[in-house]
Design brief:
By secondary structure, the chain is mainly beta. Among the domains are: about 1-130, Ribonuclease Inhibitor (Leucine-rich repeat, LRR (right-handed beta-alpha superhelix), Alpha-Beta Horseshoe), CATH 3.80.10; about 305-420, Leucine-rich repeat, LRR (right-handed beta-alpha superhelix), CATH 3.80.10. The protein is about 10% helix and about 20% strand. It has an 18-stranded mixed β-sheet, with helices on both faces. A two-stranded parallel ribbon has the order 8-10.
Length: about 425
């Protein structure tokens, strides 16, 4: 690596390290080579990292450090005294001791912490006056402390947890003081049977005091009838609810959220049996993700969304699409995985910006798949990627992957197939 580099990527996400391990000594060597100029160091996923190298204290220009998913157990004091530190992450690490001098990182804007079972959020965290983004990955759910409401510049708050006991969860009332808050994500990260109830009614009322709030993401928890208060969040632009347990149909209460740009409802726990015809009330929608609920039919108003760029309707049992889909002139990604479609309307092939078409695991026969692929070759945009399956090849069905009109000949593993099927996720995290 160039000695003048400002970015040092030694993370597992760097394809250089996909097929080989890097030693602790090599990590130290590479940091030493760029210590005078480096501003960002990414060590995510490096299992050779059992401690933070002391050479980091010599990186005086360093602004970002990521030591997530490593084997470090302690953050040395010098880390938070680095004069230009703005971002620090240690998610998915096993810290036996939490850092005690976080308050010294006066310029810190982004902090991602792992909290083990018997640990708690550091009490001096409220002294981070410039903190804009806080992510807490907790092994076990705990009550969020009121001191978080003293982070006056906080814009994004994420709370992930795994182990839980039956109980209720809510935001601290002090969050009502966070005038800069824009985004909240709360997710139970496993599929255990323990039920976590979020007091969404209280949560929404707190968030109505935050004038800039615009994005809410919840996963794996029970909100009961609390969703009925969502219309109070009149400035909401993004709503993502994954594997949420509810009482009633969420769609019946969100039609007044006229500023919504992203809507994601995933998971069978939502128990949605019908999509109401409400989409003319949501003209700003750019992305829709809906999966895991058997609705069979799409409402006609969904075809009126002129700004829609991504439409995912997966595992919903729909049997047909209307020719009105041709009205979606800005549509770029269309995911229809796991439905009951036997044919596609001609209008799909007239969509000028369509770049990805996912129609696998429907009821298409081989002839229809061949027709679809031939139609794609004549589209205005010939750079369309198609992923499809047909059922009459053998008793299990054959996976066929097309890209730019050409069928891949090699056999794909199930893992490779799954990766191709993965839609764009609005909650994408490292």
């Amino acid at each position: 690596m160039n000695n003048h580099s400002e970015m040092l990527d030694l993370s597992y996400n760097n394809e250089e390290f996909w097929d080989c391990d890097i030693s602790y000594e090599e990590i130290v060597k590479r940091i030493t080579e760029v210590k005078e100029t480096v501003k960002r160091i990414d060590l995510f996923g490096q299992k050779a990292l059992t401690e933070i190298p002391g050479v980091l204290k010599e990186c005086r220009l360093l602004e970002e450090i990521d030591v997530g998913s490593t084997l470090i157990t302690k953050i040395p004091d010098f880390v938070f005294t680095l004069p230009n530190l703005r971002s620090f992450s240690c998610i998915w690490s096993n810290l036996s001791v939490l850092p005690k001098n976080i308050y010294m990182a006066e310029k810190l804007e982004k902090l991602s912490l792992r909290i083990e079972k018997e640990q708690a959020i550091p009490l001096d965290i409220n002294e981070l006056n410039n903190l804009k983004s806080l992510r807490i990955d907790a092994v076990k759910m705990f009550s969020l402390p009121e001191i978080l409401g003293e982070l006056k510049n906080l814009e994004e708050f994420t709370f992930y947890f795994s182990l839980v006991e039956e109980g209720k969860l809510s935001l601290p009332e002090s969050f009502a003081n966070l005038s800069s808050l824009k985004d909240i994500r709360i997710t139970k990260c496993n599929s255990s049977k323990e039920n976590v109830i979020l007091d969404l009614d209280k949560t929404v009322k707190i968030l109505t005091c935050c004038p800039n709030f615009e994005s809410l993401s919840l996963g794996g928890i029970d909100i009961g009838k609390g969703y009925q208060t969502l219309p109070l969040l009149v400035n909401l632009k993004e709503l993502a609810l994954s594997n949420i347990k509810v009482k009633g149909n969420i769609f019946e209460t969100i039609s007044s959220l006229h500023k919504l740009q992203l809507l994601c409802i995933r998971g069978k726990k939502s128990n949605i049996g019908k999509l109401p015809d409400i989409f003319k009330n949501l003209p700003e929608l750019q992305s829709i993700h809906f999966s895991g609920n058997f609705v069979q039919k799409l409402p006609s108003s969904i075809y009126s969304l002129s700004k829609l760029e991504l439409l995912e309707i997966s595992g919903a049992g729909i049997t047909s699409l209307d020719e009105k889909i041709g009205n979606l002139q800005n549509l770029q990604w269309l995911y229809l995985h796991g439905n009951m479609l036997e044919a596609l309307p001609e209008a799909v092939f007239s969509l000028p910006l369509l770049a990805f078409l996912e129609i696998s695991f429907n009821n298409f026969n081989k002839e229809e798949i061949t027709r679809i692929n031939e139609k794609i070759k004549t589209c205005t945009n010939k750079e369309i990627t198609l992923h499809a399956t047909y059922k009459d090849y053998d008793k299990n069905g054959r996976n066929v992957f097309f890209e730019n009109g050409e069928e891949y000949k090699e056999v794909l593993t199930q893992e490779e197939i799954d990766s191709l099927l993965t839609p764009i996720d609005p909650e994408e995290e490292k």
